[in-house]
Amino acid sequence: MPNARAQELVEGLQKTIFEFMREHKVTHDEYRVATDLLAETIQAGEQSLLYDIFFEAEVTDIANTGRDGSPEAIEGPFYLPGAPELEAPFMLTQRADEKGDVLLFMGRVTDTAGRPLADAEIDLWHADADGRYSNIDPSVPAWNLRGRFRTDAEGRYKVRTIVPQSYEIPKCGPTGRVLDALGRHCFRPAHLHVKIRHPDVGEMTSQIYFKGGRYLESDSANAVRDGLIAELIRHERDEDLAAHNLDKPYFDVTYNFVLPSGVLAVARAVA
Ligand code: DHB
Ligand code: FE
């Protein structure tokens, strides 16, 4: 059955690609390189990686245009539903000897009217100190550094994890080859991924980056935006360490999430 939106998008895209092919006098060999590349990404399990690196930031920019509240960011290829539900005090599932500095990630979740969103679910996932994701890299235990937890009655959250490091996307596969041909590196700046859900406002997906971090200016996925960069603060005073029962310096980062309230948000929530 014809679908009007599919016609608009597919036929519009085809027209744009035709114009592009004419302008650049694309040869048959170059056309084949492109179709082979798409087939190869699927064989290498990189289909989502390739598209997310090159295109996903644009869809989030479109969604953020005219949107109230904190900006959304790309989901990336490594989100998995069904992460463990944590018990308070919240700490992301991790190895007993998890590498990396302790990080306390905290803040508030409110709607655009400033009302706290109590009992919002925060789904947090990030790479380890070697830049690897669990359930993607087989050397990392299942669900490591992935978990879900909730805000309290004032919409506050606090979770303990480790400071993630810059992440290098697989550079030996087809996606890495394309970036190499463009003279670009494969790194993404260190980041935390979050999804936030609340029945009154629906869901948002974001990423938090760290001020002053490497690759913020040259992210291979070009997904860093103002409003997503938070300050990583180091704590080393004895009283602070004792208060958290830690014997080495730790970091904290505070980020307040604001989710759009109102009719539009509710429409999104029930869609
Ligand atoms: C991409 C996004 C990520 O967050 C990540 O960790 C790796 C890759 C991507 O856009 O492909
Ligand atoms: Fe990521």
From TrEMBL:
Per UniProt, residues of the Intradiol ring-cleavage dioxygenases domain are 105-133
A Pfam cross-reference name:
Dioxygenase_N
- The keyword Metal-binding is annotated on this UniProt entry: yes
Which GO biological-process labels does this protein carry?
catechol-containing compound metabolic process
GO MF term list: catechol 1,2-dioxygenase activity; ferric iron binding
InterPro entries assigned to the protein according to its UniProt record, in alphabetical order: Catechol_dOase_N, Intradiol_dOase_C, Intradiol_dOase_core, Intradiol_RC_Dioxygenase
Key words of the record? Dioxygenase, Iron, Metal-binding, Oxidoreductase
List required co-factors: Fe(3+)
Source superkingdom: Bacteria
Q: Which SUPFAM superfamilies match?
A: Aromatic compound dioxygenase
Family, similarity comment: Belongs to the intradiol ring-cleavage dioxygenase family.
What name is this protein filed under? Catechol 1,2-dioxygenase
Q: Which organism is it from?
A: Oleomonas cavernae
Source species taxonomy: Bacteria, Pseudomonadati, Pseudomonadota, Alphaproteobacteria, Acetobacterales
